[in-house]
């Protein structure tokens, strides 16, 4: 038998394209363990790399929440420590100060300070409340803070602060107006309608009504408003004594030797109207009356133990 050589091998079209059955057989055929058996080139072996294995932590949901809480707490505590150290504030203040200094060099600086409405308030008090100086940056002045400091001065009732660029500040003051002279523990001080004490000398205000006793200062405006409801009688009031911090005794015509009017604790205004009507009808205070007691609503008690007029009382005191 003759041996087969290369010229005996004929490759047809059917040999080049596998049949469908053969293709299905190859599809389900188990791949060879060795690539060389499958007719495939042997892959190159990749160089082994040394890798360090990182252990993985398996945390529960509660543990993850606790870990996050610790991280947030550490962040908050660290921020608080940094804040309380003052580093952040000092840095911010330095930056703002540098900015204001730059505006002052650009022409926005205090060249003029004017004040209106000042009478009893001293310039030292105004300067301390302003807290600024000539030549300083005008934009650095906090108008609200200056207003609050001005209104904290006892003699100032209200204040307004105006910035007039590029270099003027104007302060407008409304000072407290004295309505009475309060005598307490032998000391005299002016008070306004809110009962606020006004420091300073009382010279020039001696003709104001004198209120005496504990609590009289704070209730002075309330009393004067009530008395003003009868203007003719109110004009004769020279002093009022607060009794037990509950009610008033009013002195007419003279603070010491005048007619003492005892007003009730309740419905004092009604009693005051009643006295004014009696005065218009019968001129009860022009008689030798030393005291009028109005504390009982349905009656008036008169005590006649004084001379007919203050001049005669003065002669009596001098032994005449």
TrEMBL record:
GO terms for cellular component: cell division site; plasma membrane. Residues 31-43 have a biased composition (Basic and acidic residues). The keyword NADP does not apply. One of its GO terms (biological process) is FtsZ-dependent cytokinesis. It is a single-pass type II membrane protein. It is found in: Cell inner membrane; Membrane. Residues 20-51 are annotated as: Disordered. Residues 108-176 form the POTRA domain. The keyword Cell cycle applies. Keywords: Cell cycle, Cell division, Cell inner membrane, Cell membrane, Membrane, Transmembrane, Transmembrane helix. Its main location: membrane. Belongs to the FtsQ/DivIB family. FtsQ subfamily. PANTHER family: CELL DIVISION PROTEIN FTSQ (PTHR35851:SF1). This is Cell division protein FtsQ. It comes from Magnetospirillum aberrantis SpK. The gene is ftsQ.
């Amino acid at each position: 038998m003759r041996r087969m050589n290369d010229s005996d091998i004929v490759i047809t079209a059917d040999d080049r394209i596998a049949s469908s059955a053969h293709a299905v057989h190859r599809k389900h055929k188990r791949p060879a363990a060795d690539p060389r058996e499958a007719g495939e080139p042997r892959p190159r072996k990749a160089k082994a790399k040394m890798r360090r294995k990182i252990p993985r932590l398996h945390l529960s949901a509660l543990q993850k929440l606790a870990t996050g809480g610790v991280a947030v707490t550490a962040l908050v505590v660290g921020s608080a420590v940094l804040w309380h150290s003052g580093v952040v504030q000092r840095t911010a203040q330095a930056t703002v100060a540098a900015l204001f200094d730059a505006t002052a060099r650009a022409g926005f600086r205090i060249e003029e300070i004017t004040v209106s409405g000042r009478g009893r308030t001293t310039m030292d008090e105004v300067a301390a409340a302003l807290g600024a100086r000539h030549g300083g940056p005008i934009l650095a002045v906090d108008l609200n803070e200056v207003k609050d400091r001005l209104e904290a001065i006892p003699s100032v009732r209200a204040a307004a602060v105006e910035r007039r660029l590029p270099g003027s500040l104007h302060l407008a003051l409304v000072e407290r107006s004295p309505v009475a002279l309060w005598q307490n523990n032998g000391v005299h001080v002016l008070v306004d309608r809110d009962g606020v004490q006004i420091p300073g000398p009382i010279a020039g205000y001696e003709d104001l009504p004198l209120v005496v006793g504990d609590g009289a200062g704070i209730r002075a405006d309330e009393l004067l408003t009530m008395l003003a409801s009868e203007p003719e009688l109110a004009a004769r009031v020279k002093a009022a004594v607060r009794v037990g911090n509950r009610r008033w005794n009013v002195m007419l015509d003279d603070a010491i030797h005048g007619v003492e009017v005892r007003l009730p604790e309740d419905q004092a205004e009604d009693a005051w109207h009643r006295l004014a009507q009696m005065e218009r009808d019968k001129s009860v205070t022009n008689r030798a009356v030393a005291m009028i007691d109005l504390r009982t609503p349905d009656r008036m008690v008169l005590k006649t133990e004084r001379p007919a007029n203050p001049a005669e009382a003065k002669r009596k005191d001098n032994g005449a």
